[in-house]
Amino acid sequence: MSLIYFSSVSANTHRFVTKLGRDARRLPLFTKEETLDAGDPFVLVTPTYGGVQGGSVPKQVIKFLNQERNRSLIRGVIGSGNTNFGAEYCKAADIIAAKCRVPRLYRFELMGTDEDLRIVDQGLDQFWTQQSQSAK
């Protein structure tokens, strides 16, 4: 079980995922590129775009999740965002969690803090253990 994530050119989400040190694959930066095939159950990590104007979920993430096989393998979502967006903070993760009927596991601001990393790392261990036990 792995992480799949999208990170824009700002690379905030990329830096966070890299610091986790877990098996992770990055979605292509541009929508014209071929998207990934998840292959195995995964947790998605995604930033939020657009604020109140809509378009919160990055197009690259939409393209990836529009593949039925990928969508069937998502087990949870972690959101990154900017608290300056107010109520729209990490909205992409909430939208994906609702549409894919999976839990929003966590959310963090920009590239996250050391505390965010610790909580996410421990939380993923617990989550994957629960997923493994429920699959038996």
Automatic annotation (TrEMBL):
Domain of life, per lineage: Bacteria
Q: Which residues form a coiled coil?
A: none
Membrane-spanning parts: none
Q: Which family does it belong to?
A: Belongs to the NrdI family.
Relate the protein's function as given in its record. Answer: Probably involved in ribonucleotide reductase function.
Name the record gives this protein: Protein NrdI
